[in-house]
Design brief:
A hairpin with a 6-residue loop joins β13 and β14. The chain is an alpha+beta fold. The protein is built from 12 helices and 32 strands. It starts with 29 loop residues before the first strand and ends with a strand. It has 3 domains: 151 residues, no CATH class; 184 residues, no CATH class; 197 residues, Phytochelatin synthase, N-terminal domain (Cathepsin B, Chain A), CATH 3.90.70.30.
Length: 586
């Protein structure tokens, strides 16, 4: 989720790699000014190293004789400043003391960015203008406005060859100043336009025989390293096993990939191709979804729908039948189904033509399945997942790790759909037909700002009856702290106990948290989200000396994010909410 979860604890952060610097008040500590100007070289902000940090900060506080460094359990150097870290009190500033910084969180490793957060009350229009003027000067470029889908200004943006800087008013209590690497697509790489025609997915006689390796001969895969990208990428693998391939119009945040079908007559937003037993078996093609595409006129939506239907009839050489709405569908969904010896095709859309109601078109998607691969996603009724089947999915390793296998990967892409994507993964794991675009509507998610955690809770609580599952807040954000004391209602032992209980039953947990406050394995990707509210899925834990020492989780960010780890106490500390959505009776 991009910026949407209401954070229960206000923590301001500056990120460079792997060192945490968090400001809190400590009575009786010495007051020492910390000048952040010595930290950032605006011409090349990422030259700073861990050794540089040690030298910079030591030189500013060595006269006090106070301790500021310690090594964390993961053997990653960590500097902690708490406005009284240990016994040191200090003030922080930028631009020769003209801009006050409330708190910093610095990680030292491979530099991936800086974040400085400023007290909202301090950030008046005068301070905002002064900061923009100073950044215009040091970056030698004029800033532009950051606006959301509603055309409301939410901040400022600077783009240079060496960095991107932006200011946002993302959270209720802070203003954030980010310094990050340039956007993820390298213009110095392949100069051909990013584009792909997906008509090969309709060549069923050949497609259903295609292996992942053969598929890479048809379309260019996105390489992990830019230097390995010999041709412009057209798709990316969603997992290491190469069982899911994803085409996306927004594969990069700053460059659009042009996708189309039916001889280029219809634009495609996203397409997912699934491989079963080493051969292409199913695909889901999104022609329209409001999160990616924005609003659409009903007349244009109907035109696209009819064009797709006519072309499918010509390809499959059969007439479609009206698809009855599934009794366990999350939303009113209508569709037409084509059944032929070559493939089964299901064209679905939300029911927007309801007498007496004004309902917008939300999505238009096409599901394709090879012969013998039709399942619950194609409207076929199946028995819900059983508890014994879930238990069989629990893997236990000799090193003490216990985790749930078989959780499908869904990539939320550039959208703030972490809640929706996580729910889709969970529901798909339990064979419940609902994708992230439907779920986004259900949980009131917005593609730019994500989903409000309170709204999400209420929405999921309302729909559990439709899915014959039970929704339960295990850690409720509204009750996470007890009154004005700031003490957590749930202890770390209770948190670990909940994780162990549900993982042992094969039930993944929806996990709302604050990114950027704790080390994780592997580290957060430099080009993606590195702070703010987010939703993941907890799928495991590690036992050592009869205690849970690590929490295992997965992100809805595609390949490389299937199984990740965080120290158990850190996972507890950054938690905002924890939820189960499981078959009733478990």
């Amino acid at each position: 989720m991009k910026h949407s979860l209401s954070l229960l604890a206000a923590i301001l952060v500056l990120c460079i790699g792997r060192v945490d610097i968090i400001a809190q008040t400590s009575d009786g500590a010495d007051l020492v000014p910390l000048d952040m100007d010595v930290l950032i070289n605006w011409e090349d902000p990422f030259k700073v190293t861990a050794d540089d940090l040690g030298t910079i900060f030591k030189s500013q506080v060595e006269s006090t004789g106070k301790k500021i460094w310690y090594d964390d359990p993961n053997e990653q150097r960590r500097a902690v400043f708490r406005n009284g870290s240990f016994d040191l009190k200090y003030t922080m500033s930028l631009f020769k003391g003209s801009i006050a910084i409330k708190a910093l969180h610095v990680m030292v490793g491979e530099p991936r960015g800086f974040l400085m957060e400023i007290d909202k009350d301090y950030f008046t229009q005068e301070v905002e203008q002064a900061l923009c003027d100073k950044l215009d000067a040091v970056l030698k470029t004029q800033h532009t406005r950051l606006i959301n889908r509603k055309q409301e200004q939410i901040g400022h943006n600077w783009e240079t060859k060496t960095c991107r800087v932006f200011i946002t008013r993302e959270l209720d209590r802070f203003v954030s100043l980010w310094v990050v690497r340039p956007r993820d697509f390298d213009p110095s790489g392949p100069t051909e336009p990013l584009a792909a025609n997906l008509d090969a997915l309709l060549n069923f006689s050949a497609m259903w025989k295609t292996s992942p390796d053969a598929f890479e001969q048809l379309y260019n895969a996105k390489a992990e390293k830019k230097e390995d990208q010999k041709k412009p990428p057209q798709f990316e693998w969603m997992n290491a096993e190469k069982s899911r391939a994803r085409f996306s119009r927004q594969m990069f945040s700053n460059v659009e990939t042009k996708l189309n079908m039916f001889a280029g007559s219809i634009k495609v937003e996203e397409a997912i191709l699934e491989f079963v037993n080493g051969k292409a078996a199913k695909s889901t093609i999104s022609f329209y979804n409001r999160g990616d595409s924005g609003d659409i006129e009903v007349k244009e939506f109907d035109r696209i729908f009819k064009t797709i239907g006519q072309n499918l009839g010509q390809v499959l050489k059969v007439a479609p039948k009206r698809q009855l709405m599934s009794t366990n569908a999350a939303l009113p969904v209508s569709g037409w189904i084509w059944t032929s010896p070559m493939a089964t095709a299901l064209l679905e859309y939300n029911e927007y033509q309801v007498p007496g109601k004004v309902i917008k078109p939300e999505f238009l998607r096409l599901r394709l399945a090879a012969p013998g691969q039709t399942d619950y996603t194609m409207g076929k009724m199946v028995t819900g997942v059983q508890s014994m089947e879930l238990i069989k999915r629990v893997t236990k390793k000799p090193d003490g790790e216990v985790y749930i296998s078989g959780v499908p990967m869904v990539d939320q892409g550039q959208k703030g759909y972490c809640v929706a994507a996580s729910c889709q993964r969970l529901f798909e794991y339990m064979r419940i037909p609902c994708d992230q675009h439907e779920m986004a509507q259900l949980v009131s998610a917005d593609a730019e700002s994500g989903a409000n955690v309170s709204v999400m809770q209420k929405s999921l609580a309302k729909i559990d009856g439709r899915f014959k599952v039970a929704f339960k807040p295990l850690v409720n954000p509204e009750q996470y702290y007890s009154g004005s004391t700031g003490k957590r209602r749930v202890s770390d032992k209770e948190f670990n106990s909940l994780v162990k209980e549900y993982v042992n039953k094969g039930v993944p947990l929806l996990w709302a948290l604050e990114l950027g406050r704790a080390a994780e394995e592997p580290p957060l990707p430099g080009a993606g989200q590195t702070r703010g509210g987010h939703m993941r899925m907890i799928i495991g834990y590690k036992m050592e000396n009869n205690q849970i020492t690590k929490i295992l989780f997965t992100d809805s960010w595609g390949s490389g994010h299937e199984l990740k780890r965080m120290a158990a106490y850190d996972a507890y500390d950054v938690t905002i909410g924890l939820y189960s959505m499981a078959p009733r009776g478990l």
